[in-house]
Specification:
By secondary structure, the chain is an alpha+beta fold. The protein contains five helices and four strands, in the order E-H-E-H-H-H-E-H-E. The chain has a four-stranded antiparallel β-sheet. The longest helix is centred in the middle third of the chain and has 27 residues, at 54-80.
Amino acid sequence: MAKKKVLYGVFNDDHVLLDAVRNIRAQGVRIQEVFTPFPIHGIDEAMEHRPTGLHTAGFVFGLVGVSLMFLYMTWINTVNYPLIFGGKPFFSFPAFIPILFEVTVLSAAVGMVVVYFVLNGLSPIRQKPVIDPRSSDDKFIIAFSADELSEEEKHEISNMLHENGATEINEKVL
């Protein structure tokens, strides 16, 4: 696995971090990632992230799940094992509705979890490296990919981080 160099600044306050992200992005510098111990409102807009397509994946998985279940129940009740229950016809759609609803919710939820894990590169088999363990406790981190940066660019980014309130500036090989 290739080693990646990361330059990062550590912040103590979420408001200072949000202002720093806005200031650094305004200067045209690309931020690789921001790590926070809790969600910060406005960080997605400051980082200029595009909206996620996770809800679309949930809709597609729900639609596929309900369609397959509807076809399966129809086939069972009309072709494979047609039984008359309480005088109802073989194809009794109102009886299908609760099951179809539950299968829609289940398939959408499972599909969205799978898509989330795949898009974020998460796996129970492989551990992702942690830049700084304090980022899940009480510190906020702005990380930059240092592989393609020259020493002068690293120095400029370090100065920007310091000017915007970073308490520490470190470089780490992951």
